[in-house]
Specification:
Structural class: alpha/beta
Number of strands: 7
CATH architecture of the largest domain: Alpha-Beta Complex
CATH class of the largest domain: Alpha Beta
Shape: elongated
Largest sheet: 7 strands, mixed
């Protein structure tokens, strides 16, 4: 297996050389992507580093972390790499963990691995509280939108992916900026790829984050909602119609009937001054209760529907 590393480079000149030096001999190619960096990180790496594995790529304009990673993915596929590991150039991700990330893929147990900073309580000591709470909330929302219920820490950018799986993804459609990791999970679920978490510690040094939570949170929520409905339509209505489809449709219909009937009776009671009878209340409540039970059953079915058979092994066969 030929292993490559992708490093998006944007304002990381203080750390990137140390990151490259720490990458072990198991890696055959290192793609450092200058994402129109104002510090000229690409030229800086070319002038300061002599590792023959390093290949500097340049984006003509700033495309965000997702755009930089896609540039590296495309170069790795063109060069015939088998596994591509993505790490940041700011020193937060220890290159010594690369073997742990590629091992599940090498053994045919996963198509895509990603870091999980929530695996051990000790690994959270250096994480700011705002990031801890934000990642916990985003993790749950991402479970809904992507369908990978066992996966935690979706914004973690330390990842590894099999090249055969990359070839099945519409790389040109992947999100270009901070939503890249979440969008990647959504698209991996569509092709039924197996995703596995890899425990790692959180590391925060003197780097400056360009991510503003207050600005991206509404955008993230809208994109997660959109992807949840797109995944639902494709997985449960277009590609297949199964028990989960019945649960969800029946649940939504019964909840709508219960709420609609109850609202109509409440408006009628307010207008006439006559309180609704207990039988009328039950006619409104019963469909709502049963509908909620159907929706819970749908969620159980969705949890059980997580991909478990690695896709890369089947794709690699002649």
């Amino acid at each position: 297996m030929r292993i490559a590393v992708a490093i998006p480079c944007y304002k990381v000149t203080q750390h990137v050389l140390g990151v490259i030096d720490a990458i072990g001999p198991e890696v055959e190619r290192i793609y450092a992507v200058d994402d129109a960096c104002p510090e000229g990180s690409g030229r800086f790496i070319e002038q300061s580093h002599r590792d023959p594995r390093v290949r500097v790529l340049y984006n003509p304009e700033n495309r965000g972390v997702g755009g930089a990673v896609v540039t590296a993915y495309q170069a790795a596929l063109a060069d015939g790499m088998d596994i591509v590991v993505k790490i940041d150039g700011d020193g937060q991700m220890d290159p010594a963990l690369i073997p742990k990330f590629v091992q599940p893929i090498l053994r045919g147990r996963a198509d895509y691995t990603k870091g999980n900073r929530f695996y051990r309580p000790e690994s959270l000591r250096g994480m700011p509280r705002i990031r801890l709470l934000g990642n916990a909330a985003l993790s749950f929302v991402t479970k809904l939108s992507s369908g990978y219920w066992p996966v935690m820490d979706p914004t973690n950018g330390y990842t590894a992916v099999h090249a055969e799986v990359l070839r099945q993804l519409p790389l040109e459609k992947l999100e270009r900026r901070y939503f890249f990791e979440s969008d990647m999970l959504y698209r991996l679920n569509i092709i039924r790829a197996v995703v596995q978490d890899v425990p790692m510690d959180a590391v925060y040094a003197d780097e400056q984050s360009n991510l503003k939570v207050s600005r991206v949170l509404p955008e993230f929520m809208g994109k997660h909602v959109k992807r949840f409905f797109k995944r639902y339509v494709y997985v449960y209505l277009v590609r297949d119609f199964n028990l989960g489809s019945v649960y969800s449709l029946a649940g939504v219909l019964l909840c709508a009937l219960g709420l609609g009937f109850g609202a109509a009776q409440w408006i009628h009671s307010v207008a006439t001054g006559v309180p609704a009878s207990s039988g009328t209340v039950m006619l409104a409540a019963l469909p709502l209760i049963i509908g909620i039970q159907f929706l819970i059953a749908f969620l159980h079915h969705d949890v059980d529907n997580v991909p478990r058979e690695p896709l890369s092994a089947a794709l690699a066969r002649p």
